[in-house]
Amino acid sequence: MAKKSTVFFCKECGYESSKWLGQCPGCKSWNSFTEEPVIKKTTAARANVGNFSEPKYLSDVQMNEDERTQIGISEFDRVLGGGIVSGSLVLVGGDPGIGKSTLLLQMCKLLVEKKKKVLYISGEESLRQIKMRAERLGQFAGDLLLLSETNLDQIQSLVEKDKPEIMVVDSIQTMFKEEVNASPGSVSQVRESTAVLMHLAKGLGISTFIVGHVTKEGVVAGPRVLEHMVDTVLYFEGDNTASYRILRAVKNRFGSTNEVGVFEMKNNGLTEISNPSEYMLQGKPEDEPGSVIAASMEGTRTMLVEVQALVCQTYYNMPRRTAAGTDYNRVNLLMAVLEKRLGIQMASCDAYVNVAGGMRINEPALDLAIVSAILSSYRNKSLNSKTIVFGEVGLTGEVRAVSMAEQRVLDAKKMGYEVCVLPQVNKEHIKVNGIKLLGIRNIRELNSLLHE
Ligand code: TYD
Ligand code: MG
User: Fold this and answer.
1) Which residues have CB under 6 Å of ligand 1?
2) Which of 93, 136, 367, 424 could cysteine-pair with 212, CB 3.0–4.6 Å?
3) Which residues share a beta bridge with 92?
4) Residue nearest to atom 1 of ligand 1 (CA)
5) Which H helix or E strand runs over 305?
6) At what angle do helices 328-342 and 367-379 cross, to 10 degrees?
7) Among 34, 42, 41, which residue's Cα sits nearest to residue 15?
8) 213 CA distance to ligand 1 middle (Å)
9) Residue 423 and residue 399 in contact, taking contact as beta carbons nearer than 8 Å
10) Paired sense of beta strands 260-266 and 269-272, if any
11) Rounded to whole angstroms, how far apart are CA atoms 422 and 390?
12) What distance in Å separates the CA atoms of residue 132 and residue 137, rounded to the nearest whole number?
C-alpha cells in the first residue's frame, strides 16, 4: 500500500492527526481539522539556533550591555519586558483590524528615528497603502525599508543580503515557501515560514516581529499554531465599541507575562494611556446605588474599574441575568451566595452586571465589588464614592485574601481614594497611612457599609 501523503491539522492549535477529527483533542475546538500534505524534511527540524557549535561554560558566555533596544513607546516596552531583545522572535496576534499593523508601523517610525535599520515586509498591503498609513502617523524622521512580498525564499535572500537590525513580517498567514505543497495560511505553511524566520532571527541576530491574525472562521491557521516556536507572544485586544486597545504578553522568555499596555486608537494612530484607571472611570456617577469601584490588577499595575449592577423585580418565570466584562457563571454563583448567606430572594430578581468602560476582568478579587454592587442596587443604598473594594468571595460567604493587596491600596490612595474595603486577612499585613482600611471577614459585614 502506498504511504499516506497527507495529514490532518487543527487550524486553531496545530494539533496533528492521521485522520480527520470532529473535535480537536488539543484545544477542544470543533470542525477545525484540515487536510494537508506531509512535508518530508521540515525546516523546523533544521532551523535550530544558528550553526552547530561547541558547548560553552556559562561564565564564558558574554552578555551584551545594550542587548535591549527601547522603542520609546513605554507601554510597548514594558510589555516586552524593557525593550526589544536583539535576535528575538515576537508574535503579535489579534483580530483583523484591531491595529497590529498600525502599532508595528509606529514602532518602526520611532526605531528609524534612532538610526536603526528596519525592514517592514507586508504581504497584505502594497507599498502605496503602507505609505498612506504612514502619512496618517505623521512625518517619518528616518527612512524605513519597505518590501511587499509573500515568497519567503525571496525574503530570505534579501534579508541575508541587507541584514536589517529589526524586521516586521505582516502577516505570517500570507507568507509561503515554494517547496511546501500547501496554500498560504495553512498550518504547514505557517509553521515552515515561522521556522525560516526563526532561523534568520537567531542566525543573523535580527529582532523579528511576526503579525498573526486571530481567525474566527478558521479560514487560515491561527497564531496559536506558532506560539511555541517564538520567544514572546503578545496579543492585541480590544472591544469593537471602545477605542482603547490592550497589548497583553501571554508568553515572554525575556520578561514577565501578564503585563499589559493600554492604548487608544485615534485618527493619527495609537496613543498610550499611561493612567488607565482615570480613563476607565470617565463619566462615573457619584453616589449612585449599584455603582462600586473595584481595584483590580493588570500585571504590576492597579486598574480601578467601575462595577455596575442593576437588580430589579423580575417579570418572567426565569429571572434574567447578564454579565458584561466579567464571567457570567461567577456572577450567578455570587448571587446564589448572597441568597443563601443573607437570605435575599435573588430568585425573584433580574440582575444585570457590567464592568463599565468595556474592560474584561476575570480576577477573583473582583468578587467583592460585584457582590457590593448587587447588594447596593438591591437595597437602593450607595457606597461612599471615595471607596474602593477588592476581595475574593467564597461559597460560604467568607471574604478571602487576594494577592498584591498593599499595591492596590497604595495606588488607590495615590488616586485620591479615602476608604478601602478589603479582606480582613489582607488588612492585618498592610501598613499604609492616609486611607481608611475596612477589613471584612464575610459578606454579612458589607451591609453596614451601605448608606442611605
Ligand atoms: P490595522 O493596523 O490595519 O489593523 P490590523 O493590522 O490589526 O488588521 O488597523 C486598522 C484600523 O485602525 C482601521 O479600522 C482604521 C483604524 N485606524 C485609525 O483609526 N487611525 C489610524 O491612524 C490608523 C492608521 C488606523
Ligand atoms: Mg494589518
Assistant:
1) 94, 96-102, 133, 136, 265, 267-269
2) 93
3) 211, 234
4) 99
5) strand 301-313
6) 60
7) 34
8) 14
9) yes
10) antiparallel
11) 5
12) 9
Q: Looking at ligand 1, which atom is closest to the CA of residue 103?
A: 2
C-alpha cell at 212: 498573526
- Three-state DSSP at 208 gives strand
Best mutation site among 102, 103, 120 for ligand 1 pocket (most ligand atoms within 8 Å of CB): 102
C-alpha cell at 342: 443573607
Distance from Cα 97 to the centre of ligand 1, integer Å? 6
| Residue 170 alpha carbon, nearest atom of ligand 1 | 6
Q: Which long-range contacts (CB under 8 A, 24 or more apart) does 391-395 make?
A: 391/365, 391/367, 391/421, 391/422, 391/423, 391/426, 391/440, 392/364, 392/365, 392/367, 392/368, 392/423, 393/334, 393/337, 393/367, 393/368, 393/443, 394/337, 395/333, 395/337
**Is this structure's pTM higher than 0.85?**
no
Q: Given the C-alpha cell 454563583, which residue does it identify? A: 333
Place of cell 502599532: 103
Strand bridging mode 260-266 / 244-252: antiparallel
Are 19 and 8 within 8 A, CB to CB? Answer: yes
Nearest residue (CA) to ligand 1, atom 2: 99
Query: Any idea which ligand is nearest the CA of 174?
Result: 2
- Report residue 242 as a C-alpha cell: 471602545
**Residues listed for the chain:** 452
Q: Tell me the C-alpha distance between 347 and 364, whole Å.
A: 23
Q: What is the pLDDT along the chain (452 residues), one digit of tens a residue?
A: 556 688 898 888 888 899 999 999 988 888 888 888 887 655 554 544 445 567 888 888 777 655 889 999 999 999 998 899 989 999 999 988 899 999 999 999 999 999 999 999 999 999 999 999 999 998 888 889 999 999 999 999 999 998 999 999 998 999 999 888 888 888 889 999 999 999 899 888 899 999 999 877 656 777 788 888 999 999 998 876 777 888 989 899 988 887 889 899 989 999 998 888 888 888 888 889 999 999 998 877 888 999 999 999 999 888 899 999 899 999 999 999 999 999 888 888 999 999 987 778 889 999 999 999 999 999 999 998 899 999 999 999 999 999 999 999 999 998 899 999 999 999 999 988 899 999 999 999 988 887 65
3-state secondary structure of 66: coil
**Nearest ligand to residue 94 Cα:** 1
b vs e for 403-413, b when ≥16 Cβ sit within 10 Å of the residue's Cβ? ebbeebbbbbb
